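To illustrate the input format used throughout this study, we show a single complete record. The first block contains the structure-token representation of the backbone; no residue identities are included at this stage. The design step must infer an amino acid for every position from geometry alone.
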């Protein structure tokens, strides 16, 4: 197992994400036992992950508390009062059967939750728990633009930050820009969704042909991890492992440091391009076409259209289930053409909007 120095501790670079445990307790226990045996010592759960804290603590009950690190998260989005901070923290500790949490995160920050943290005085509550030794290290996870990241970093001198990054989603907010901001500030980074919710593990042939040509013995998922491992400030990469085979495959990937060669980078880029080619419309989401005077959310309609197309090819249920906007629907388009001249991609917007309506029939 590869280890990194993370907040002064020796932590495995592969973290066990606990949001997608296997269906049965027995399978989960088998996965955790193997991960523990092979040196995975970082377990990432959250108050809102269904039953995950309880299951994790049961799986780990035979191990010394000092042999692993527990992570959980404060659901700021569910908080109504300042007192909720301690209430949620205590409940997490109770479910995890522990007095302290090694790495505690303010969960899924966005502009609203940053505001709420300030208004309710959440950081003061966190400071009390840190002073009592019940929180060892404080961080946050975020799915928001870089401006919100910068704002959140002003709240406290955080020990670490968790962001989403994978080779298909380098611009997912705050994306690679977020990684660079954090790296400049010497804040270690934890990565979530490295395989895009499992989607990049299931790339069908021939889209994954460049991987097969590079090395047919490596799994699709392993390329996702190897891609991220080239960035030194990514200290931990979380994987929501939901089967023993996935645990074994990941353990093999993280067994030792490997060079991310130019040839491997080329293979990843070719697969990325193959996936992007499944898109129906070349919309970058820049929003230059907005606002539509008739209330159509053009980029959102196109994004759903593309997600459906990609979901069909990659057999991804989550993408296929994406819903078109109910109010800002393409039905409102009167083909005035005002948006077309603003689109840098030269998309015939009213025509493609009609296609999205065809799909919805
Ligand atoms: S063409 Fe349709 S989408 Fe574009 S501005 Fe006019 S009504 Fe809105
Ligand atoms: S301007 Fe073009 S590329 Fe940009 S969001 Fe609108 S349709 Fe998409």
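Output of the design step:
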């Amino acid at each position: 197992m590869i280890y990194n120095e993370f907040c002064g501790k020796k932590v495995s670079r592969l973290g066990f994400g606990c949001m997608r445990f296997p269906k049965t307790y027995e399978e989960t226990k088998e996965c955790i036992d193997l991960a523990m045996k092979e040196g995975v010592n970082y377990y990432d759960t959250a108050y809102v992950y269904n039953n995950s804290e309880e299951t994790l603590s049961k799986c780990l009950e035979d191990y010394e508390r000092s042999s692993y690190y527990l992570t959980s998260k404060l659901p700021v989005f569910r908080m109504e009062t300042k007192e909720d901070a301690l209430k949620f923290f205590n409940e997490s500790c109770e479910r995890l059967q522990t007095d302290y949490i090694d790495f505690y995160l303010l969960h899924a920050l966005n502009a609203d939750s940053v505001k709420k943290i300030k208004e309710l005085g959440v950081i003061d509550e966190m400071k009390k728990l840190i002073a009592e030794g019940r929180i060892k290290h404080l961080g946050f996870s975020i799915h928001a633009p870089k401006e919100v990241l910068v704002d959140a970093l002003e709240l406290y001198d955080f020990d670490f930050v968790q962001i989403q990054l994978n080779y298909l989603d380098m611009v997912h907010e705050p994306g690679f820009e977020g990684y660079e901001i954090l790296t400049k500030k010497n804040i270690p980074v934890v990565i979530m969704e490295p395989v895009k919710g499992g989607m990049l593990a299931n790339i069908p042939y021939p889209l994954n042909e460049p991987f097969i040509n590079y090395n047919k013995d490596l799994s699709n998922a392993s390329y996702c991890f190897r891609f991220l491992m080239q960035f030194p400030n990514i200290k931990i990469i979380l994987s929501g492992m939901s089967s023993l085979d996935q645990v074994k495959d990941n353990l093999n990937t993280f067994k030792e440091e490997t060079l991310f060669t130019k040839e491997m980078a080329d293979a990843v880029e070719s697969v990325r391009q193959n996936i992007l080619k499944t898109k129906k419309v070349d919309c970058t989401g820049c929003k230059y076409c907005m606002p539509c005077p008739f209330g159509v959310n053009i980029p959102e309609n196109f994004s759903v259209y593309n997600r459906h197309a990609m979901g069909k090819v990659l057999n991804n249920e989550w993408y296929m289930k994406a819903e078109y906007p109910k109010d800002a629907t393409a039905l409102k388009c009167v083909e005035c053409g005002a948006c077309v001249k603003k689109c840098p991609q030269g998309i015939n917007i009213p025509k493609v909007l009609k296609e999205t309506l065809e799909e919805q029939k």
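Structural context for interpreting the output: The pocket of iron/sulfur cluster (ligand 1) is lined by residues 292-294, 296, 298, 333-339, 349-350, 353 (CB under 6 Å). DSSP finds 14 helices and ten strands in the chain.
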